Automatic annotation (TrEMBL):
One of its GO terms (cellular component) is cytoplasm. This is Uncharacterized protein. Keywords: Repeat, WD repeat. WD repeats lie at residues 49-90. Residues 216-241 have a biased composition (Acidic residues). InterPro entries: DCAF8, WD40/YVTN_repeat-like_dom_sf, WD40_repeat_dom_sf, WD40_rpt.
Length: 251
């Protein structure tokens, strides 16, 4: 199949149409359009969303794609109707420093928004029936928190990644925020932007491969030894590379 760079307008339309109705694998599609000159030339400015009073560090769509959430240095979270270029809701996040990431939790009717910040907090914003927003802290890192990753099939579980070298597994259930145990500790220069969960993910996992000579000692002491951490996920669909599991070695 021709690449999108050399494809006609009709060919490009077909590729995007197949992606929208689910006939194209997300990973395959993204590789086809990455750095595509033909696609870039079709882009134009649709409009500007004005409401923040500081740098906007994060934007994220809801599952239906009709609402956008943004977070800024002004510590405000804004929900946008991007089609009409209007703000639907704006609320103070409760953070004391710049917001680095904001995401909708799946299957919550866009009423739960998680945020992370330079203040080390991970917070939840709950949109109430009266339109007000209740915020609370779910977790605290020892450094800035740059990345959040939601569990695609769960309205309660997500992960946070901080400069303190920890990845935290966090659950919000029954209106009680719970900070789960850290899954893995890495050095700060290794942890940035490694959290990514596929939309087709069925199960996330972390495997520790210990140095065999030090495995027993490491287990007793709760650490030590040379560890290799594999991040991966399983998928229902078979990728073009084959197999249902993809691993990313980070240590």
């Amino acid at each position: 199949m021709k690449s999108l760079c050399g494809a006609s307008k009709d060919d490009k339309f077909v590729e995007f149409w197949k992606r929208e109705i689910g006939l194209s694998v997300s990973r395959t599609f993204s590789r086809r359009i990455a750095a595509s000159e033909g696609v870039v030339k079709q882009l134009d400015l649709y409009g500007k969303l004005k409401g923040h009073h500081g740098c906007v560090n994060t934007i994220s769509f809801n599952s239906s794609g009709d609402t956008l959430v943004s977070g800024s240095d002004d510590k405000q979270v804004i929900l946008w109707d991007w089609a009409t270029k209007t703000s639907k809701l704006s609320y103070p996040s409760g953070h004391f420093d710049n917001i680095f990431q904001a995401k909708f939790m799946p299957f919550t009717d866009d009423r739960k928004i998680i945020t992370s910040s330079a203040d080390g907090q991970v917070r939840l914003g709950q949109v109430l029936e009266n339109g007000n927003v209740d915020t609370k802290r779910l977790a605290k890192h020892g450094g800035r928190v740059h990345s959040l990753a939601v569990e695609p099939g769960s309205p309660y579980i997500f992960y946070s990644c901080g400069e303190d070298g920890f990845i935290q597994h966090i659950m919000d259930a029954n209106k009680q925020g719970r900070e789960g145990p850290s899954l893995v500790t890495l050095t700060p220069d290794m942890i940035m932007h490694i959290l990514h969960l596929s939309r087709m993910q069925a199960m996330s996992f972390v495997e520790e491969h210990y140095n065999r000579g030090e495995a027993a000692e490491s287990d007793e002491e709760g650490g030590g030894g040379d560890d290799a951490i594999d991040f991966g996920y399983s998928e229902d669909d078979d990728s073009e590379e084959g197999g249902n599991s993809i691993e990313c070695d980070v240590g």
